[in-house]
Amino acid sequence: MARVDTRRFADEAWSTLRLALPLITGQLAAVGMSAVDAVMAGHYSADVLGAVAVGVSLWSLAVVTAIGLMMALPPSVAQLVGAGRRAEIGPLFRQALWLALSMGLLLFAAVHWLAPLVVRALHVDPRLWPQVTAFLHAVSFGAPAIACYFALRGVSEGMGHTRPTMYFGLLGLVLLVPL
């Protein structure tokens, strides 16, 4: 059986934790924003809460699509950093931004114009249709920006800079709470 080098293990664990804690904090901030959204919607009425819940569920598909599209970016950037080929990160980032912007515009169009059709096809309570559609129309304008954010995030995380994810998540939460 192999002997575990305790000191090396502790060093590796600490390095991993330094990278992971900001990511975990950023994700918890995103969950906090969702909770604040639910509380705010619930203060208006049960119908608004229901409309926001349905709208967020549908909007999440667009967000997950943008996230999935950018999933290859952090390991690609990390590989370039590890190989000492930092000069290639810029062109990769530009390509990722073009891809993100294109996908963001496509997601905007899909969410904005298909929202009424999807809401009806899912047999959502007809009383909620106008509110769900209005919610989706409003958030659809953020699709290009959020897709580009995930490109920025992918490059940052690939370079080992995980704190910006935390800072943006906490900033979003702090700005949302007073609303």
Brief write-up:
By secondary structure, the protein is mainly alpha-helical.
Given as residue ranges, the uncertain stretches (5+ residues, pLDDT < 50) are none
Order of helices and strands: HHHHHHH
- Give the C-alpha Rg: 20 Å
Measured as a percent range, the helix fraction is over 70%
Mean pLDDT: 92
Question: So what's the overall shape?
Answer: globular
> Termini, distance in Å?
58 Å
Biggest sheet details: none
Q: Which structural class is indicated by helix and strand composition?
A: mainly alpha
- Number of separate domains: 1
- Number-wise, the strands total 0
Total of helices: 7
Your description of this structure?
By secondary structure, the protein is mainly α. It has one domain. The chain is 83% helix and 0% strand. It starts with 5 loop residues before the first helix and ends with a helix. InterPro entries: MATE_fam, MATE_MdtK. This is Multi antimicrobial extrusion protein MatE. It comes from mine drainage metagenome. One of its GO terms (cellular component) is plasma membrane.
